[in-house]
Amino acid sequence: MTEKIAFCGLNCSSCNAFIAFKTNDEKLREITAKKWSEDFGHNNPPLRPDDINCTGCLSRKEPLFMHCNVCEVRRCGLKKKIKNCRDCENYKCDMLRKLQKIIK
C-alpha cells in the first residue's frame, strides 16, 4: 500500500480506519472502535465498527473518519490547495500545534 500522508503529517496508511476501509477488515473495525472509544472518550455513544472507515485526509471522497471530516487543519489544507502543512507559508500555525499536541 502506498503511503498517504495527511496535511498534519500523520501517516494515513498506518491508520486503522484507512486500513480497515482499504482491506474491508471487519475484525479490525471492531477492535479499533472499542479501543478508540476507550482511548478518546467516545463513550456516549461509543464508536461502532461502521464508524471505522476512511479514504485518507487528502481525499475528497467519502468515507472520512468523523474527526478527519471536521478537522480544521484538513479544511485549511484543502482550502489553500497544498499537499502538506509544511508547504504553507504559516507552517507551524497554532491550529497545527494544537492538533499535534492531541495526537501525540
Task: Name the features.
5 helices; mainly alpha; single chain; globular; 104 residues
Could you write a compact summary of the structure shown?
With 104 residues, this protein is mainly α. Helix content is 44%, strand content 0%. Helix 1 (16-23) packs antiparallel against helix 2.
Oligomer: single chain
List the secondary-structure elements in sequence, H or E: HHHHH
Contiguous runs where pLDDT drops below 50 for at least 5 residues: none
How far apart, in Å, are the first and last alpha carbons? Answer: 24 Å
Strand content: under 5%
Number of structural units classed as domains: 1
Structural class assignment: mainly alpha
The profile of the biggest β sheet is: none
Taking all Cα atoms into account, the compactness measure Rg is: 14 Å
Determine the mean pLDDT.
92
Number of discrete helical segments = 5
Helical fraction equals 40-55%
Query: How many extended strands?
Result: 0
- Tell me the overall shape: globular
How is this fold's topology laid out?
Elements: H1 16-23, H2 26-39, H3 66-70, H4 72-80, H5 94-103
Helix pairs in contact: 1-2
Structural overview:
This protein is an all-alpha fold. The chain has one domain (12-103). It is 44% helix and 0% strand. The chain has five helices and no strands. Helix 1 runs antiparallel to helix 2. It is globular, with a radius of gyration of 14 Å. The mean pLDDT is 92.
